[in-house]
Amino acid sequence: MGVETVRRLNLDPPESPPLRVAFLSLWFIDMVAATLFFVVPYANELNPVTVLFFEYLGFAGVPLAASLYAVIIMGIGHVLSHPRDIQFIGAMVALYTLFVVNNVLLLLSGEPLVAILGV
């Protein structure tokens, strides 16, 4: 009877701490904005998973859904090899920047980014 070696999953976080901090900062702002969408009457959360979590758990479901997204994104960044990990997290920072700008403008003005830009 032989001893089998278990193949371990090597987690390798992206080597750019500022990029991870930027992602988590934008993620936090997006989470707060998504929570506020359930409070203001003129804006709606469009993400069906966040809405489902809100329906079942109330306001606690919104940060829970957002945390799930962050864990998935950070997990993917840890599994990817260098330099793909940094490119992936960089792409997520770009997307979350767009989400945050849109959500904050929507909360402040009642108009989404597309309507403000006239596209």
TrEMBL record:
Keywords, in A-Z order: Membrane, Transmembrane, Transmembrane helix
Listed name of the protein? DUF5658 domain-containing protein
Q: Classify the source by domain of life.
A: Archaea
The source organism is Natrialba hulunbeirensis JCM 10989
List all membrane-crossing ranges.
Answer: 21-44, 56-76, 88-108
